[in-house]
Amino acid sequence: MPDHPPRVLAIGLDSVSPWLLYERFLPLMPNVRKLLERSRYGTLRTIDPPITVPAWAVMFSGMDPGTLGVYGFRHRRAGTYWDNYIPTSRTILKPMVWDRLSRMGKRVCVIGMPPGYPPPAVNGVYISDFLTPDNATDYVYPPSMKAEIDRVSGGYPFDVTFRQDDRDRIGKEVFEMTRKHFAVARHLWKKEPWDLFAYHEIGPDRLHHTFWRFFDKAHPKYEENEHLRTLVEDYYRMLDEELGRFLAEVPNDVRVLLVSDHGSQAMQGAFCINEWLIQQGFLTLRGPRPPPKTQIEEADVDWSKTLAWGAGGYYARVFYNVKGREPEGALAPADLPAFEARLTKELEGVRRPDGAPLGVDVRRPKDIYRSVQGDAPDLMVYFGDVAWRSIGTIGYPTLFIEENDTGPDDAVHSFEGIYSISDPAEGRGQRGPVEKLMDIAPTVLTLLGVPVPPEMQGKAIAAFR
N or C: which end of the chain has fewer CB within 10 A? Predict the structure, then answer.
């Protein structure tokens, strides 16, 4: 038995699904295979909504998005129509595990966990995430570490510009970004025996959005392209090599977690939520129909006749135009229950262009979260188990379009992520049960021998309690 306190290394691979890691690319990843052989692993069921923000925050807080007050990449400020904001590390209403450990005097190193800008003050080191603003210089805590991070990385990249057609450029930049991130992670790992070391890599997500149609023959727009298919396979080989170099520095008694925030899947198409609301008479415009891809905030909306409007993304955020709440509210509060029931019923009846049910899943935040803090939408609407995107722009002659309105996009998210937890006990190396994203935070604390706070909604995974 080790004569020093337990330690945990958590490596997060954004958007990696069980199919990708355990099937499609596992033959190319001998180091991942070795890790799985000494781990308990399986499917990690993500949260509503299955989006990078808030999923990583849920994972490492043990609390749901409503309690954290974060519902996606963009939020509408209460009492406005178009005042949107992107969450930051200061938006999160509850502490992460590294905050709790820092207060206990334990040493932590966190790299790129979103939302991570500005980098929170921890007892250790924190490098900001891919949401770091362009030209920001305050992306490392403590600030004195910035020069060292820049030196090791040769210029620290937070993200790449994707959803564009120059795929070779995107591929090159994703490779370079991931290599630089791992170089910094290995460097910081060696600096001291961290109690918790947590590293997030956004590269796989960018790869999936850009190249999915070239490696998945089930994609509705599959395209035979050996060069781009090989690029994806080479990325997963490189990812495995970088993981192998990192894990070679990790003692056997360190508990290693390999996790993802959600999965990915082929995008089947997109549903124009605001076009549908216009057709149903719930959203009214003045004047002639605008051209395609018109932002709803740029359209001339007749708010006196509008009852609801929506926003695009991985799910539709639907907002009600309520009297006394919105500036020009048209829906009386007393009429809300009946309107919501009608809206839900009609949404659930939407059919795809081929006549089959779209599979619309309508959820109310107050029904799925312990509490609803911050700026939540009135309804959260998934299309086809998230395989169809929500399109918030207007001006289309149809309710369905094939592409994302923000640029070329091959993939969307899914509810199935991955987990792998190294385990010296019996039964390792076998695929285990489906676990919950929210249970990772209490599991990390349990592995570190730290009591789980009563306010955490998640529970430590049974095998590690």
Answer: N
